[in-house]
Amino acid sequence: MPFKNITGKQESAILSALRVGQYNLLLGAGFSMDSANERGKLPSGEALAAELCNVTGAKSNSLQRLYELMTPEQVRTHITDRLSRSAPGKTAELMSSFIWKRVFTWNVDDVLENTYQDGRRLQRAVPKHFNDIYANAESLEELLVIHLHGYVGQADRGYVFSREQYLKQITKVNPWMTVLTQLMLSEPMIIAGTSLDEVDLDFYLAQRTSESARSDRGPSILVASDGPFSRKLCEKHDLLLFDGRSLEFFEYLKGLLPTAPTPSELIPIETQKLISPKVSKVVAMAFSSDFEVVPGSAPKATNSRFMYGHLPTWSDLESNLDISRPIVAGMLLEAEKRIADPLNTNRLMYIGDVAGAGKTTVLKRLAFELAKRGVRTLLCSALSRIGADTANVLDLLDGPVVIIIDNLAEQAPAVVDLMARLRKPDVLFVGAERGYRENYLKQVLASVNYDQFDGLAISGVEARRLIDRYVEVGAIGDHTILKQKDRFVREVQSDPIAVACCRILNDFRPLDRIVDSITTDAGPEALGRYLGAALAQHCFYGGIRYEILMKAFGGKGGQEQFKPSSPLPLDFYDDPKRFVIPENAVLAENALARLAERDPDKMLLTFVNLAEELGSWVNRETIRARSPEARLSGRLFDFDAVVGKYLKGNSEDFYTQVKSVWEWNSRYWEQVALLNLARYQMVTNMERRMEYLQDAVTHARHAVTIEHHPFPLTTLGKVLLVHMLAPGISMKTSFDEAFRKLSEAIQIEDQRNRVSVQPFGVIFSGVVSYLEAGGQLDHKQLSRLTDILSVASTKLGGDREMQRHIEAVKQILV
Length: 814
Fold this sequence. Notes:
Layout: E1 3-4, H1 8-19, E2 24-27, E3 36-37, E4 40-41, H2 45-56, H3 63-68, H4 72-80, H5 90-95, E5 102-105, H6 111-115, E6 124-129, E7 142-147, H7 163-171, H8 175-186, E8 189-192, H9 199-205, E9 221-224, H10 228-237, E10 240-243, H11 246-256, H12 269-274, H13 281-290, E11 291-293, H14 314-318, H15 326-339, E12 348-353, H16 359-372, E13 376-380, H17 389-395, E14 401-405, H18 408-421, E15 427-434, H19 438-444, E16 451-453, H20 460-472, H21 480-483, H22 485-492, H23 497-505, H24 511-521, H25 524-539, E17 544-545, H26 546-553, E18 570-572, E19 579-582, H27 585-598, H28 600-614, H29 620-624, H30 628-636, H31 639-647, H32 651-657, H33 659-662, H34 666-682, H35 686-706, H36 710-723, H37 731-751, H38 757-772, H39 779-795, H40 800-813
Parallel strand pairs: 2-5, 2-8, 5-7, 6-7, 8-9, 9-10, 12-15, 12-16, 13-14, 14-15
Antiparallel strand pairs: 1-10, 3-4, 11-13, 17-19, 18-19
Helix pairs in contact: 8-26, 15-16, 18-19, 20-22, 20-23, 24-27, 25-26, 25-27, 25-28, 25-30, 26-28, 27-28, 28-32, 34-35, 34-36, 35-36, 36-37, 36-38, 37-38, 38-40
């Protein structure tokens, strides 16, 4: 075998990763050398350099230096035309018989694109230029081919050949190159066709070590001739060396996996059975990534981590490791009643409570019990991007369907839209959300009927059951607990259940002391990663992508942090193990609060590192697609709910330090505006107050200039309504602008068939303040206000806070 020092376990890991499309490829010129066009075989780097010597009259084997001497016409003839219209060779043909995560290539030729033009291929190639914004593949059927040095199909956008260009691309904020450095750190990579002399290969490999590489993925591989340099490179960066050419390597893979599954064949069997044959493969794959079919039974749990803070698995529930809770029985009866009544228009109910109250376990137990009773039950992923096609899939299902959503605030806009699209009457949505997002959730859900449930506070009976359960599994460390059980029952009865569990495991110490102890025991890198994951999950329920976390906070000791023995254990949110969360959410929330108090500079660094590494993954396209990174960053920058809460006096430093990465983003400027608005309201010096207020207006207007969207329009309206009451300001001028912007925000939402509570609330409170201060509405404003009141009464009448706003406006207009 041409591998050097490969074990049977490593080969099995290669096969497993290859089968499910986990590998990324990084390809050099050697990959294309058996492909050809009308001018013959495509050249290697050395051969191309020799051709260019004849063109330029210079003598050099450096492509970079030769390229600097070429005229635009010579580039077109001897680069673009020379490497275009390529017929794929055997290497490319073999490569395309497998599923890949992504392909990065230094080659500027069109070999890969032409290979995938054949409709029989497993994937569809989508070329990306190095200067393109980051994009997510819609599914495994879509293969992004990222040309790191340019592409003959987009020759007008330029190539990267010269050393100067290399350095410029490496040092500037280039999304695809940044993403590659993050992937190279830990994800499975295959590097083939390279001479090992590429300037940027060293850059990409620089931070990769045996500690940073993931042990739960296939090993990364370097395909190159055996020699001292290649062996040293593999040893240094934890790569397996395949001694041979690219063709030989892909022939080896073909022998390992003669027939690779298609992307649609990777959809779980239960989901395949569920989805109608009328649904396209692309829609079926999207639906599969968004929803998990809840099983009616599961194997008994072995080596469960549930009682230590891990999210409950179906096996944990089958083994009854959770305690019986009355709220489950009540919600189960309510769910069965609603799905049995096709005339019922209230198709949404949710649990709202503090972090650690047991919402996730209650929801999953409810889902499991429904599935046991034969009710088709689907669990929505926090990572999902529920789209319009979801309604079409659900409408084709027979019988009632219950959809469980454990991060309802994240999915609420999509759920409202989905409910409007569904023709099927017997679909019920059951969700849960942390209490601090209740106001936002109520605003989004204002146009639909829903019921909120409570009852998660643990009773004395439940507290006793909880302690007994830990006694049963031998997880009690202090024997006095057994002798004085009533006392300890009373002690934890007032705690959220997750806090009670944590205290039981730690001899009933107060939670703050537990957190102080474990954060002291952890090393600085482990603490940094834990805080990064905790902050990410506070902002976005699904957590943070593994490679981003490791790049932001270092990979040293990262693998150890996923073991139960770690003082600050991390866990994966999803089964494919892509997104990281803290194992115990309650400890994580408390750790964030304690750090904000004790070490504000460390907290600032956590925010900055997270924001900077997220930057390349977020752009207007990924925001529209509601990617996990876009949703995470949107919440991370929220001044009122997150930044001000945890950074306090360091808030301005955060926005300043990440400005170069995020200043393109309208939300960034919205939040900077709100920061200045808060400062205006806090300081007493009038000159400084007015400076802050003017900055708030300026930044809010800039946000609208960047993106004409209801969100920045609403923020600008909010700021202007404060501005109008400031001394020395023309109240009418500021009010008129605010009224126009808020009215426009409402109009845009209406044109999109959406209703957002916030602009209504801001415009109504602003009108009341304006009229109370002596202002007067003109005829046009009064007419528009009447229309807005009518829309709010019709579509948001179920929101009590909105009813109060409407009534206040009506009273002052009388």
